[in-house]
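dumping these here so i dont lose them again. two proteins, back to back, each one seq then structure tokens. dont judge the mess
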Amino acid sequence: MNLFFNMRMRRGLFGLFGARGHGHCGAAPTAEHYAQMRDRVVQKATRKLSLNAEQQQSLSQLGDTLIAQRLASQQQPASPRAQMRALLDGPRFDLASAKDLVQNAANKLTAQSPEVLTAIAGFFDSLNPVQQQQVRDRIDGRGRWFGCAG
């Protein structure tokens, strides 16, 4: 359970570094898959926002931070589906274990948040006011950069 990727920004520029699909034959995406996706996002954002080299580097660093977070969340001992199934195995819902799962997810998010927020701030603050407004517009749904029509 990765709460960061459930935020509204998932649909925005930054969410594209999250797992939107799966790797080959439904397998979890690999680090190489994420790196390719990061490169495509940086290229497209560079075109849409007219990013300079420093801004591209900052966006790549943001992508690397989000990828590291995603890969770390994939290293869980059991899948979320298996964890949910375990809660339902007995005659009653295992409320205590469910609360532990939620608390563990929240603790992970809290531990990873400063690094992710610093990376987001580094990228956003490197943008000029026009570029910042373009990002805001995209997050508000007024831009279509990465969709089918983009």
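---- next one ----
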Amino acid sequence: MRADARRNYEKLVAVATESFLANGPDASLDDIAKRAGVGPGTLYRHFPNREALLDAVCVRWADSVAADAAPLLEAADPTEALNDWLVRLVDHVSAFKGLASALLLSTDRKHDTAWVLHHTSEELVERAKAVGGIRADVTTSELMQLTSGISYACGHSKQAGKPTSTPERLIGLIMDGVRTR
């Protein structure tokens, strides 16, 4: 890719990320092109449809999530690392609104972001089980469903202007229920 084409690509992905964060996955593509300082033709040359642009944003998000998770995968206390990850996961899912929730609950692991979320969660759950930190019958899927629910509940109550428990508090309650000690 030529340098100017690469810059346009990067600008489009950065602006699209901001726009999807602010407006959800149905954000205006024309507005994204305009804010990136390119014409619609340039946007469509790089991204033939909304799905392709969403995929590019999600690949970047997956890289960010993976970098955030990396130290937790090496943490000395796997159970505490799992707790920290679930709190971070609520933040990641909340940031990407409906897009993240759809990915989090997706059974299609082909998508980079869904794969990173599931893989990291599975690894942390298995590490916590291996040291006896959480119950053996707890599944990654169950924890991810609960995390998605917390993300939804916290986001919904924030939008409604109602006070809510923090994600840290709610994840703490879940962890109290799954810890063995």
